[in-house]
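@channel sequence for tomorrow's demo:
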Amino acid sequence: MIKEGVVITMKIVVLAGGISTERDVSLSSGVMIYKALKKKGHKAILLDVYLGYTGQDAEDVFEKDEKWDKETGGISDKNPDIEQVKAMRPDGDKNFFGPNVIAICQIADVVFMALHGENGENGKIQACFDLMGITYTGTDYVSSAICMDKGITKDIFACYGIPSPAGIRLKKGETPKEKVPFPCMVKACCGGSSVGVGIAWKEEEYEQALKEAFRYDNEVIVEQYIKGREFSVGVMEGKALPVIEIAPLQGFYDYKNKYQAGSAIETCPAELSEEKTKEMQAYAEEAFRVLRLKNYARMDFMMSETGEIYCLEANTLPGMTPTSLLPQEAEAIGISFEELCEKIIEAAVK
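structure tokens (generated this afternoon):
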């Protein structure tokens, strides 16, 4: 980080892991961010928010030449065994934060949030850090909580004229007053990385999709299926990045297609008319504004076969894995991964 011509070396915690269904994605993001910050000369450490650090020298961790980018095991097409992770912390039901996590974060100049999913993107950690005076990347606790709930996000989009697929919210055990016609999408209301998301073309598939979504949340979103092209737009400090198009080789952009290399063709900048590009970027910037987002985020879109644009949701801590979209969008305008990490840090501390 350079300020007034002087290179500033910072103590940075890259916070990753946790016990959400996106634990392995978070670890992959964390390793990439950690290596980038080390390359830029920072005193960075990679810390698992749930497992913590059990060494006796917590106050000196930034001075140690310890290798923190431990093997993550990669990203699989299966959800990680969270119960095994929980078994490593007998006291996990009493305190979500692992040993020395808060103490180390308080020593740091900034915490780079590489967490995804529950207890990472739902605002609880951000609220805790606010109370403790810990500086962190990404948006605050209010906008994190809003965006984690797809139903609330859709309500806000409707208030501000941001087009979103028509749909309903459904609680477990509740009989819907209206039904979304087939085909339809079924989504866990507060999930991420397309975990608990399915498409239903008939009643049997609909019932199975509901069952799967309710595994992850007590409330689901059922919305119209938009046949067409899928896009994403990153926004940094209110300004949209280039549009990226995602074309899965099979099915839709689910968990496997997001994180298995070669599962989707990603084109950035997307092959769109200038008019459609500006329209989508404008919706992304407006979503960033009305959802009260800060620092950076990413909006997902569908464009129907007749050209209508629909904003699906906002991602408050976009993935930073080798196949993630935001780094590709930044690269399209000449921002390297290391520079992207620096810009996110600068926005957080200024």
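heads up for whoever presents: Confidence is low (pLDDT under 50) at residues 253-259.
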